[in-house]
Amino acid sequence: MATKIVRYRVQEEEEHQLSHSMALSSQIKKKKFKSSDEEASLSEYYPIIPGDVMSVKELMTDPKFPRHRTWEVLKETMADDELRQRDKWTLFGNEAEKVEIGVIRNQHVVRKRVDRMALRREAERKCSLQLKFLEDLSRKEPDFPVPLRPHTVWEGMAVKLSCTVQGCPAPQVTWYKDGVPLRVSSQPWNYKLLQKIGLNTLEIRRCSAADAGEYKAVAKSSLGEATTFATLVVNSYQGAKAGLKITKTVAPLVETEALFDSTFPPSFVKEGETLVLSCGFTSPLLPFQQDVSWFRDGEPLRPSGRVEVQTALRSSTLTLRGAHKEHEGFYSTRLQTRDGPQEHSAFIYIRDGAAAVVGAAGSPLQVECSDVNRDYVFLSWKPPSADGAAPVQGYYIERCEVGLLKWSRCNEVVQKVCYYPVMGLQENTMYQFRVCAVNQAGVGRPSKPTEPILTSDPMEPSRTMVVKVERGREIVITKDQLESQIRVPFPPTGVSVCELSDSYAVISWTEPDPRGKEPLTYFVERSIAGKNSWHLASMDMTVQSTRFAAFDLQKGKSYCFRVRSINKYGISDPSEPSQPITLGEPLGVPAAPHCIQAVADTDSSAVLLWKEPKNTEGILGYYLYCSEVGTSNWRTINNKPVNGTRFTVHGLNTNKDYVFRVKSVGRAGNSHYSEESQPVRIKAAKVVPSPPSGVCLLHCSGSEMVIGWRAPANQGGEAVKGYFLDQREKPQTVWREVDPKPVKERVYKVSALLEGHYYQFRLFASNMIGLSKPSQPSEAFLCEPWTMPEPGCPYDLELREVRRESLVVMWAEPLYQGQSQITGYVVEISQGEESEDWTEVTQESVTDRHLKISGLRAGQTYRLRVSAVNSAGVGRPSLPTEPITAQTKPGTKDMEIGVDNDGFIFLSFQASETAEDGQFKWNKNYREAIDAGRAHLETKHKTSVLTFTAASEEDLGLYTAEMMDSPDVSSSYNFTAEDLERLTELSWQIRNPLIALRSEGWQVEVSDQGAVRLWLQTEPLSSSADLRMILNDREITSTPARKINFDKPNGLVEILFDQLSKEDEGSYTAQLKDGRAKNQFTLVLVDEKFKQTLAKSQAKRRDWKRRSGPYFEEFLSWTVTEDCEMIMKCKVTNMNKDSKLRWFKDGMEFTQAVMEPSGVSTFTVPQVTRKEAGVYRAVVSDSRGEDESILELVDTEFENLLQHLNRQCALSASPLGIQCTAAGFKLYCSLKYYLSYMKTSWYFKEKKMDQDERNAPGSSMQKVWIEIFNPTENDKGKYTLEMFDGQETHKRHLDLSGQAFADALLEYQRLKQVAIAEKNRAKVTKGLPDVVAIMEGKSLCLTCFADGDPAPEMFWLKNDREITSTGQYHIAHENKCTTITISSVTMEDSGNYSIFVRNSYGSQTVHVTVSVYKHGEKPRAGAVEM
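Structure (tokenized):
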């Protein structure tokens, strides 16, 4: 143990000497070297003994260094220690300096060597790459330029078999004898193998008969193998022969590389949801392609907790969980190919999540932390694109310690600009920050939290030094070790402003150097510039970092700041003041862009262009907005500011007109909106058509060929105007134009051909934009006459009405019919894009040239082909159609049939997704034109209507409609006889209409005045409508007593009777006519129905007369409140200033009722008794009349009132409680109000408790109880209180057992003992006043009576000291009475006197003040004179 202590002290001494020697070492300029591949070490981050570090001695001897106010004290403190250790650390410092210089020299040499080695390795690497390249160029399979030759020798002679081999890479040569590998090691004395520069030699020193045979040399490499052989004949052996055999390894076929097949389009995802992007490949990925990369805005995406990348052989998927606005941008995936990387990109939009408050602003984005310090962080962010229901007023900043999941607000006042300094953080703590926007609606959704940051001292690395010594060891020295003798700190330096806004200024400074070993904090002081009145700016805040944000500055005033350093030894002198600082001007919002222009791009996107404002300073990007023309619903396009002045907007509706506007984004907020762009129609830009396809031969006569082809898959937005046909003979390579004029149809006869020659054809399609690319050349067609008996192939296959489960295929009749007429067609279908597995659609041949195919699988791809049939059999099949997917396009609508307002039957087809000026094409049975005499067409607003002039059986059939520029937009309807019958009836109803009734027939109403109204309502009528009113078969007209009103626009017919009479009984009929429409409606108002109406009218008339003056809107009624009060109430209306309301009970008026301005009068009874029973009457009257309300609160009504009171009292009862007394237990229940009418019963263990000597029930106005005297163990159990309110029983329980009973019994016994002690305790009963006044010279006698058992002891005290019966004091005790007599009192006898009584149960002290006054003076006020 002693050895360890000695070692530890030696180590401490060495460290101490090392720190002082480093401080005194001379300043050596060090040149740092670092090789390109040198591993990073601690010296990369910490300086190696910086030359600008001054020792304490140098600081003391430097006359230019500013003096500290405790300098002399510090100097005296260090003087003795310096003299004592001068020799030691000076010697050690010199030695350390030598070591340091040697180390630096060695490092210099080593680094030079390392650099040379790195250069040598780089040269070797490049050389090896060059050699590998040359080797790849010279790769060659093995070969024997000089093969083996046969030899014939005599036995015992020597022989050499030689051959030369070549190849790259160098082949491995193996020797064989008679097919067996030759092992030289078995006969090393006889065989010798030599190989030198491609020459291979087998030497046999002494030949024998066993050596005769066939020798073979085999050369092998990765590119193949070569073999040469020869025979060796010993003596005269005949049949010698030689040969050469070469085999080649076929190089593997180049595998097909994968390309993009399916990709991801521009997508929209809501904030907080998961984004999934995927792409498919045409074939499995090759090994060099399997590293598929994903990027966002050009930055690679790495797998993390939020990002997941999955790459399979045929697909790659990117998954982003919890998307935020920061994740919006261009996403791209990159695939490596032999021709270089192939890339696909699309813009991904992140829409705002659900608002935290309705109308609140969106979430800010890109919250960033900078200038991280020990207790300070500077935050900046970008404003949201959506302001919500009101403009953004500012922002709240929140912080959270990592792991606590508790967010706290950093600012109480909203921050108006998008940056904020956060102070008051804890050092060495991980924080996250987020920001919320605020408007009038409230606080919006928070932003994405920042990445966790650690608050620490950024200057900490600069205070650490590293000294490298031999064998790779390092000595780490901190400035704290070198400055351990610094006590009171020096002042900071370089006080200046680093951040300035219109509401705060951030002050920064440099910590003192040297700073000392102890931790530093700071005080920040400020003063108005020009005035030397400094006061504390940091107040009670502990500033740990070299940053401080001052918020409470006044605009227009200049301030100076200075800082003091603080450690545990004291406070430094103030630093030099900063330059005057004035709050800056408020940061203004940027100007809006201008010249907004939108250009249509595709059928769902547009390119938006704009110009930047003249002043672009402070602009962070732009937010874009769009709206459909005719609406005011503006939609945010991007939620992350875009840079530049061009952007492609996706997700727009086809054939809709849009306008756009733009905002500039700045730290002070967003600019106002720019002007709106001109409206732009969203549709695909017009381009040249795609190439035609499917060139086929339809007929050949020997000198002429008929060529057919398919129309382009994409017409480019404009109809194809014609086709141009080229031809060439098979051996030729030059194409020749067949006809310079465009061909309108997709069939063309080519003439002047040579029989027996092969010809190829290609086509160009043209529209108004230009000429398409050429089609793929057709196969070579042989020009020879067709003589086969079967028909040729159908052509011009077209698909219509493609839906999820069906489609229609149409075709043209073959031009070559064979030896007989065509009798039908065979339609075949194949599932898949390239499948050749054809299946017939129908079991029998089709006679029409169109067929509807049903039963398809939604989403599956199909191809179709058609063959013609005649008596000779089935002919050639047509070219298959292009692959088609069974799906219904969005917006597709089917043809409808109906009847118009004029009664004509029509067919209607709407193409909502097409252009406004699109043209429709109608046919009957797909081919026949529409007879203009039987129907006419009308097109309006993307809808085409075919109206039949007079629909009949001749018009029945299948009708089809399609868009001429988009044939795939099509529909059909089969007009059947059932439709004709149904619609003909509907047409007759329209042409002969009835006036429709809206009300439920005639209605009878009686008004409050007793007037009667008979009315009915029909649909709106024109101004020419006519009404005839019939009563009991005679027409009636309007009279003063019976008014008839006819409101034509509303279709309202009414009869008004001021006073219904017996003459008005009868049957009322209203006959209406409006143009062609007519109808009549009858009301039978007789017998019982008339009597009820008459009685109701008379009753309401009487009530109306009653209400001509003041009257009761609500009659007298009573209620019981929760406080068990009865309130009697009525409400009067139609009162004036003369109206009076009086209350009566049993004919006697009383005035306790309260009248409110609203007309409500109340009478409150706090406690109901029997005397409240009686008849109550309220009367309201004035000059206009009188009304009364009566309430009989007697008998049953009064019993009902009591029952309600009892119930309310019982409901207010609290749970049973227990109160311990000196006499026993008191069980009680508190009520708001207790009525004696309520019956109460107490039960113990389900047995009723009656009053006896041990039980005493009782009650008060607010409590019911039962007392149990002298309780014992037998009183343990369950107690129940039952309260009967007249209808229901209410119970309250208390389980007085177990610990509850034990505690109660213990408390009872304690209170009993206390009561006994209080009864027997010694106490003063009477005698002494508070103050006694007596004249000097008189005698004072004070008497006091006491009581107690046993009799108490009594003592007299003066000023808390006992008085004995001596001298002028005489004390007498007699039968619990004591008297003290003071004779001839003097002024010294004034004071505080006390009587103290005591016995075994307690004591008591009573005080009396004696005031002695001289003769002629007045006694003390309030004193008793003696």
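The mean pLDDT is 84. Helices lie at 2-24, 56-61, 71-137, 479-482, 977-991, 1087-1106, 1195-1211, 1298-1320.
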